[in-house]
Amino acid sequence: MLKEVLKEIKEADVYSKPQIAKNLQVSENVLEDMIKTLVRMGYLDEDLGSSTCETKCSGCSVSSCNTIPIKMLSITEIGERKINS
Amino acid sequence: MQNIALVGNPNSGKTTLFNVLTGSNQHVGNWPGVTVEKKEGSFKHKGALYNVVDLPGTYSLGAYSEDELVARDFIVKGNPDVVINVVDSTNLERNLYLTTQLLEMGANVVVALNMMDEAESKKIKISTDDLSEALGVPVVSTVAAKRKGIEELIEGTLRAMDQKPRKIVFTYGKEIDEEISKLRSLLKEESLPYPEDWTALKLLEGDQEMLSIVDGMDKVKAHLESLHSDNVDYELDIVDKRYAYVNGITKKCVVKPDEEIITTTDRIDKVLTSRLFGLPIFGLIMYLVFQLTFVVGSDFLGGYVETAIGLFGELVEGLLVSIGSPDWLISFIIEGFVGGVGAVLVFVPLIMVLYFFLAILEDTGYMARAAYIMDGVMRAVGLHGKTFISMIVGFGCNVPGIMATRTLENKKDRMIAILINPFMSCGARLPIYLVFIAAFFPDKGGLVLFIIYALGIGMALLMGKIFSKTLFIGESSHFIMELPPYRLPSPSSVVRDMWEKVWDFVKRAGTVIFAVVALLWVLSVLPMGVEPYSQESILGRIGEFISPLFAPAGFGTWQASVSLFAGIAAKEAVVAVLGMVYAGVSEGSELVTAIRGSFTTLSAVSFLVMTLLYTPCAAVIATVKKETNSYKWAAFMAIYPFVLAWVLAVLVYQIGSLMGF
Q: A25, B8, B576, B618: most buried, per Cβ within 10 A?
């Protein structure tokens, strides 16, 4: 099932939990756990946004930082190997 | 006294059940060596006293947190007579993962199928008999919060105490089963605090605690090393088998109503992020934002600030004259400070309104869609989709925009994202556009601003494409993004977001811009005896020296040249200098009139192209040096946008002139 999650993510454009959960016939909570597990194991890379909000920016005219809540996932090299295995 | 352990996922109602079972007979302490809270209590049933331990809430029994370690250590080493696994009935599939791990450990488990009332209200039907049969352990329905099923649970638990747990034989596939068997036989020769089967399984999962325990066991270690050298990794397969096991059980024992998975967000996204309409809608929304910015910011609010600054200038001037201040001081305060800094501050209402609308877009979740929509475009030109996130940040200020590129792991992607970020129109450049729009395109403000921003994005994409084909060749990695659901914007969050940006803009006008203006004022009145703000001043001479460079672009005046020069220190300084060097005209509409007299429409367009694209401010160049750790790239960042901007500004002016504009 975890390999299927990797495949679904590889083929998807957007990480839609409801859609992937539906395709795999699991609940969204379980899918979330699976993704966490895959991230922990190093098959997926999770990016919760930039850390610019934490960085003091003395040269800016405006205190602009990334407040857009986008979670990004990418398949790592070992993740790619797992999919192809 | 017999021991009962309570274990379950967080929010499964475990602690409620603990309170119901033990009442006031409980005490709280800490598990030895860790900061995890230990709750213990007791209850009496039919004259016998039972001890109950409430284990920390956990989703699994790995070695990844103190909670997990405490829970599994107690189950394995504490030898509870029964482990009551409290399961949230509304979320059975997730909760059963922990149950599976308990069964793997060989624990004497009783499942309390808690929150059954909620499951029923959600029309989730669970067959307790089938579940009990599938798991091989007693299953009791409970509603701990309403004290329902407690008696049955106690009876079931006491019955289980008298029985030996039914051993469930798990299979993880032939290869893993064989490895477990090999390890088990090796572990049998050793003295272990845990069951051999479970230890073998955990070792194959790469459990760090287990690996440290077998560190001194040579044969076991050698076997594990041989697996490691063959690049064998069983962890994913083992976890996978658990999920498959749980999935099989829930399919057999649970009937759920067909869930409506098409949410409102999905419906909106079908249109807003569609391949066909996504990009045009994004463009339209941004165009509307710019239009509204002018309608609200300029037509309704703009006049008040301008009038206030004008009144302030008159008041201060009157005061300075009345107290007999020297002319140079009056000149510095009125023409330098009020004229320069005031010329920047007069645009605060427009900036405030623009950030207000952008904050609304951000808060509704639309800006995340913008990143997704642009992802396709970015990939088409060979850029990483994440680049657009840093570009959006760059609309506020290019410094954090460049810092936001840190999330790009690939050096090629990151370098391109850094080099194109300054083409995003930062807030500091807004006053320049607004002055020229007020002077030449007062009725088409929204459209012109939209075109300027779009030109910046277009230029960034073009240069990104060129860089990806020349300087930084390579593949961009694939990624997907999770879009947050749409929501109504929260007024407090929108106002806070807007206010933070506007306040920083005002603060900077009063500090950095003031310092730049003070320096330029000194240069504009020296040497002594020359006409202040004239061509003979040092500032005038600097402008005069560089102005021929800009003559082919149509704005070869010393005033325009020196303002662009000052803009390299800080972009707001462009307007501040224009406000100051058009001596006496100072801020607001007077500056607009002066600019209208000094530029033609065509040279104004050419000037706008120049200011949009030319050398970013000093802070950005310093950030590029810091982020790339290279003076070479910092110098490149300073030079290439200037050359590009100059070429385009010249092209605009020369082609426009040829066409008779």
A: B576
Which residue, among B108, B112, B111, has the nearest Cα to B161 in the 3D structure?
Answer: B108
| Cis amide leading into B527 (omega within 30) | yes
What value does the mean pLDDT of chain B take? 84
Residues B48 and B118 in one domain: yes
Angle (CA) B589-B592-B594 rounded to 5° is 115
Question: Domain range holding A59?
Answer: 2-84
Residue B404 to chain A, least CA–CA distance (Å): 5
- A57-74: average pLDDT: 57
Question: Which of A64, A75, A81, A83 has the highest number of chain B CBs within 10 A, making it the mutation to test binding with B?
Answer: A64
Q: Is residue B501 part of a domain?
A: yes
pLDDT number for residue A61: 47
Whether B158 and B178 share a structural domain:
no
**pLDDT greater than 50 at residue B585:** no
Return the percentage of chain B with pLDDT > 90, whole number. Answer: 19
On chain A, the residues whose CB falls within 8 A of the CB of B623 are 59
Into how many domains does chain B fold? 3
On chain A, the residues whose CB falls within 8 A of the CB of B570 are 61
Half-sphere exposure of residue B106: CA atoms within 13 angstroms, side-chain side: 12
Using the 3D structure, point to which of B105, B127, B162 is the last residue of a domain.
Answer: B162
**Domain boundary residue, one of B139, B162, B185:** B162
Parent domain of B101: 2-162
CA distance B506 to B527: 32
The yes-or-no verdict on residue B604 having pLDDT over 90 is: yes
In this prediction the ipTM stands at 0.80
> Which tokens belong to B322?
């009345």
Domain count, chain A: 1
Which long-range contacts (C-beta less than 8 Å, at least 24 apart) are formed by B622-631? B622/A59, B623/A59, B623/B398, B623/B399, B623/B402, B623/B403, B624/B402, B624/B418, B627/B402, B627/B403, B627/B405, B627/B406, B627/B418, B628/B415, B628/B418
Are A64 and B244 within 8 A, CB to CB?
A: no
Shared domain check, B213 and B295 = no
Dump pLDDT digits (tens) for B125-155: 889 899 888 888 899 999 888 888 889 989 9
CA distance A18 to chain B (A): 6
Closest by alpha carbon to B233, among A73, A33, A76, A79? Answer: A79
> Which SS3 state, helix, strand or coil, does residue B48 take?
strand
Average pLDDT, stretch B605-623?
92
Q: Which residue on chain B is closest to A16 by alpha carbon?
A: B482
Q: What is the mean pLDDT of residues B11-26?
A: 83
CATH of the domain at A41: 1.10.10
User: Do B464 and B353 meet the contact criterion of CB atoms below 8 Å apart?
Assistant: no
B418: exposed, middle or buried (C-beta count within 10 Å: 0-12, 13-18, 19+)?
buried
CA B164/CA B162 separation, integer angstroms:
7
CB B210 within 8 A of CB B199: yes
For B461-511, write each residue's pLDDT tens digit: 999 889 988 887 766 666 677 777 788 888 888 888 888 878 877 887 777
Question: A52, B400: Cβ pair inside 8 Å?
Answer: yes
What was the pLDDT predicted at B476?
A: 61
Which residue does chain A place closest to B236, by CA atoms?
A2
Q: What is the CATH number of the domain that holds B193?
A: 1.10.287.1770
